[in-house]
Amino acid sequence: MDSHFQKVKNYIIDLNYSILLEDETDGLMVIESEEDGIKNLVLGIEEPLLIIEQSLINLKDTSAETYLHLLQKNRDIVHGAFVVDETGKRVIFRDTLQLENLDLNEIEASFNSLALVLSEYSEELLNVAEK
User: Fold this and answer.
1) Which of 33, 44, 83, 130 is the most exposed place for a label (fewest CB within 10 A)?
2) What is the pLDDT along the chain (131 residues), one digit of tens a residue?
3) CA torsion sign, 119 to 31 to 89 to 99?
4) 0.90 surpassed by pTM
């Protein structure tokens, strides 16, 4: 895990993201890029995967219609997807990448996908979010 942690950390630095927190023992990193609108993006380095999660909103309406809308939006997301936590109320952007062959372009594509989701769907997300 040590070499994968360092490899991911180097990519984060190369992409000019700020590292807010890092715990190599637990394989966790929290990063941000203000210019991309990404704050508190959690990276979990858990062999054999890099798990990328960004908490987005709490849903005010947990109807089937709201979930259907989120699932339909997943089709437009290039990398990653909207998921909900175990409560069914918290919407999270999540992507998983293989650590074995991870390269800078792949991790950058995932981050760019999140930035695109935030810019294109932020108004829609706010409409279904708890105030």
Assistant:
1) 130
2) 458 999 999 999 999 999 999 999 999 999 999 998 899 999 999 999 999 999 999 999 999 999 999 999 999 999 999 999 999 999 999 999 999 999 999 999 999 999 999 999 999 999 999 98
3) positive
4) yes
